[in-house]
Amino acid sequence: MLTGGLLAILLASLIGLLLGIMGSGGGVLTLPLLVHVAGVTPHSAVAMSLVVVGTAALVGLINAVCQRRVRGETVLWVAAAGMVGTYLGAQLTQLVPPRIIMMVFGILMLCVGLRMIGSRKAVPQAQTISPLAYLLIGGGVGLLTGFLGVGGGFLLVPALVLIGGLRMEQAVGTSLAVICLNCLVGVIAHSRIEAIDWSLTWPFAVAAVLGVLGATLINKRFSEQLLRTFFGWAVVAMGLFVLVA
What we know:
The chain has one domain (about 1-245). The protein is mostly helical. The longest helix is centred in the N-terminal third of the chain and has 25 residues, at about 40-65. It is built from ten helices and no strands. It is about 80% helix and about 0% strand. Helix 4 (about 70-95) packs parallel to helix 6 (about 130-150), helix 5 runs antiparallel to helix 10 (about 225-245) and helix 7 runs antiparallel to helix 8. The radius of gyration is 16 Å and the shape is globular. It has helices spanning about 1-20, 25-35, 40-65, 70-95, 100-120, 130-150, 155-160, 170-190, 200-220, 225-245.
């Protein structure tokens, strides 16, 4: 049990590392980590995942704000719809059996991982985008956040680049801000339904924060494409494990 707990905490630091580097990848690994390594039930893991990812994203956001990599007006539009979607998603979680949640999560992980592995070229930059498009992006990501306990950055970052026309570094910083707000709403919604084991949650959150801080060093040593490919294969492997476990 102790070995499993230590392994889970080490993996939590990797989650923070990925979140700090790419503004995504935290939640998509946190839920299976809590369920299969820490032994938490899927419903409880969703709420705990939101705390871990939200805390790590907050630390990364502070660094992004200092470097002026956050698009304020984009955050307002996306987060407004995202928080509503997160609240609705949290209510849906309680209506779905745990095994179905994990199956949906496993399939989603495979799709995301393969997409990241196959993404070799820079996406074209859009010129302008209407507030309605931002609301649709935010609402969809928020629904996923509340339902599965993920920050949604793995969908939000490419959407902001491809549809919103943001540069990659701006999309990452903006994504962290939206993730923080969505996770906050998700934690509030889930805590009203089921108690959160804070004694188990905070060690994971602290480990993830250390990973975010370490990302500032990793960013300078490896190319974005290499990190994205590594992350993609890690997500595919975890997705297959979730589906067969």
